[in-house]
Amino acid sequence: MGLLADGQAFAVNTLAGGVSCDVWHVKTADGREMVVKRALPRLRVEADWRAPAERASTEADWFRQIAEFDPRLVPDVLGEDRAHHIFAMEYLPPETHKLWKAELAAGHADAAFAARVGETLAHIHAATANREDVMHDFAHDTQFHALRLEPYLLHSAKKHPDLAPRIRALAESVANARIALMQGDISPKNILIGPDGPVFLDAETACYGDPAFDLAFCLNHLLLKGVWRKKHRDVYLQSFKSLADAYFENVTWEEPADIERRTAALLPALLLARIDGKSPVEYLTTEKDKAFVREKAFALFASKPASLDALMAQWSDGAKK
Q: What is the CATH number of the domain that holds 302?
């Protein structure tokens, strides 16, 4: 990638985190720092989960696309080796860019920051909605199916035959949508609290489709965090509402009620997916917690809430019992 001179000294350390890539922190003798990432053809999970390694270039392309809109929202791409599915990006130190997931785990659920996430995500979707050029550049349906629809929705559908037709219909709806650019992995583990607001990472799942998937994917984690850290449940729900409200206030490409309805429909399926899919959340380990999530997902499928307020009220009632 031309980022180091021949013979130039550097130190490299493996970074912990995701299951889909090798990630290294590289520091040169003159003090330059960068992150180098290589996509894996087989993901590091218990189930047999494979996905095209070409997704590394998808991630770099998403960073560049968003940087055209606002460079503060993503790390700079420093170089690529597309033949080997590797790219290098700017290193953002934890001293200035705290990980949102870590803050939430500690109970530091800042509703104002959650609102910034929702607002910014809506702006990204608005900037890419109904654009033929972006649709062409991010026509990654095969990758998205392998990374999201099959391991999350379709895999969990196999474990719940009574719900399988509805879950498969949701997956098909997302697969067929051509509305805006999805990042595909909007999760607190992939969002940094930067000096100017949220910074988004891990975009290898980017695909043109339904922006409701991004919103539901993120909100899902705020519900699950309350099962994990029960004493902080109420502040997670405040962040849930702040994020959703800020998002809908900035929806310009369609009626906010339409995308809210699709988001509410996706959430119970994603709840099941993070318990019974190929990539269950690592922090819900007890059978009691898993059973609670399943029970609430089943109830939400039955009640079919059309709004997130109704969904959150039903979830809160269950959590208090």
A: 3.90.1200.10
Who has greater pLDDT, 186 or 52?
A: 186
Which position has the token pair 């970074």? Answer: 15
Tell me the CB-side half-sphere exposure of residue 267, using CA atoms within 13 A: 34
Determine, yes or no, domain membership for 141.
Answer: yes
- In which domain, by residue range, is 276 found? 87-320
112 residue type, one letter: A
Separation between Cα atoms, residue 219 and residue 247, nearest integer Å: 11
Q: DSSP secondary-structure letter at 31?
A: S
pTM score of the predicted model: 0.94
Q: Are 7 and 54 in contact (CB under 8 A)?
A: no
Domain count of the fold of the chain: 1
Residue 277 CA, chain-centre distance (Å), reads 15
Return the exposure string of 40-75: e unless at least 16 CB atoms fall within 10 Å of the residue's CB, then b.
beebeeeeebebbbebbbbbbbbbebbeeeeeebbb
- Which one has a higher pLDDT value, 233 or 55? 233
- Distance, CA of 270 to CA of 58 (rounded, Å): 23
Eight-state DSSP code of residue 184: S
Per-residue pLDDT, averaged over 141-154, amounts to 94
**Lookup: tokens for 4:** 């180091």
User: Is 224 inside a domain boundary?
Assistant: yes
| Euclidean distance between CA atoms 28 and 8, whole angstroms | 8
